[in-house]
Design brief:
Layout lengths: L4 H11 L3 E5 L6 H16 L3 E5 L16 E2 L10 E5 L11 H6 L2 E6 L10 E4 L6 H11 L6 H14 L10 H11 L5 H10 L3 H13 L1 E3 L4 E6 L1 H6 L10 H6 L6 E9 L2 E8 L6 H6 L3 E2 L3 E6 L3 H16 L1
Parallel strand pairs: 1-2, 1-4, 2-3, 4-5, 5-6, 8-9
Antiparallel strand pairs: 7-8, 9-10, 10-12, 11-12
Length: 322
């Protein structure tokens, strides 16, 4: 089977560059962190000088290797030949690093979100992949490069996270073949799974209990909504990433087809997460609000009060999907 030409083009661009910036979406999750650290470690093995631009990394990802490559800002004394955006469904999700992206000589976009508008000079977007980490794995293999325990751990983390522990329908037979290969590197997959899905801070546990108790149901219990404002987050000393996982509990409630979690990141900046089941394409709703994502998992930002955002989201979902 012929490999995509873009794979070779990306390899050539990397091979011709030395100082390379890598960035992911704001509020990075397991796939973003895993893909970015895995690729950065590969670049190091190629003799390159990668800089990971990333902030607000949840503590549970402290086990990830490559943390020494993570910077808050790109060093002023370094040239920038190549910028690689990973797991960013659109350019805006790069956040405060957009200005660096715009000034880079060459830009690459590697992603798996179906709504990705292909905003870089070179775009490798495969919406059939379970995760961006799956794409990075394919690139490494296609380029004839070797894995090691640290790179394998990062890739396993991202694939496990974005497949929900291999239970979402984006999990394919190819996904399992990749996992089988990664396990040959003696990674501590039990520890990774525990940190991703079964370990919570006390603040996150209290917030989860509060959010589920506050959850509202509409449309004969088919639509689940929860809002969390800044005062409520502060009440539990919770960080933004402590909201992770709440929406899964909401969607897994019997009868719920669509779940929506809104939380206030700052004044008039509401982060919205959507999840759906029964073949409902929730990315349609996210796109209406300028966001995007996957068919069954998407998100957006709404610049209004949390009450206004909630009302608009409910009305839009009822109009478009029921």
């Amino acid at each position: 089977m012929m490999k995509p030409m873009i794979n070779q083009e990306i390899y050539n661009l990397i091979n011709d560059s030395m100082h390379i910036a890598l960035a992911v979406h704001t509020n990075p999750d397991g796939d973003a962190i895993g893909a970015c650290t895995a690729l950065a470690l590969v670049l190091e093995k190629m003799g390159k000088k990668p800089i990971i631009l990333m902030k607000d990394i949840p503590d549970k990802y402290n086990f990830i290797h490559g943390k020494e490559l993570i910077y808050d800002e790109y060093p002023d004394n370094l040239p920038l030949e190549l910028f690689i955006a990973l797991d960013c469904g659109d350019k805006e999700r790069i956040g405060e690093y957009i200005s660096i992206f715009d000034t880079a000589k060459i830009t690459i976009n590697i992603d798996h979100h179906i709504t990705n508008p292909k905003y870089a000079d070179y775009n490798l977007v495969n919406s059939n992949a379970s995760s961006t980490c799956e794409i990075i794995y394919e690139l490494i293999k296609d380029w004839g490069l070797s894995l090691d325990k640290e790179i394998a751990s990062s890739l396993y983390t991202g694939i496990a996270f974005d497949t929900g522990g291999f239970k979402h329908n984006n999990t394919s037979s190819f996904t399992h073949k990749i996992i089988a290969d990664l396990l040959t590197y003696n990674i501590n997959f039990t520890d990774i799974m525990n940190k991703l899905f079964f370990s919570r801070s006390l603040s996150a546990t209290k917030l989860l209990a509060y959010a589920l108790n506050k959850m509202e149901l509409y449309q004969n219990n088919q639509l689940s909504i929860c809002t969390l404002d800044k005062k409520e987050l502060e009440k539990f000393d919770a960080k933004n990433f402590d909201t992770e996982g709440i929406i899964s509990f909401m969607k897994n409630t019997e009868g719920v087809l669509i779940a929506c979690l809104l939380y206030e990141k700052s004044e008039n900046e509401i982060k919205v997460s959507f999840r759906s089941s029964d073949n409902i394409d929730i990315s349609v709703i996210a796109q209406i609000f300028g966001g995007g994502g996957h068919k069954k998992a998407a998100g957006c930002t709404i610049n209004k009060t949390i009450i206004e955002a909630k009302d608009e989201v409910i009305n839009t979902i009822l109009k478009e999907l029921f």
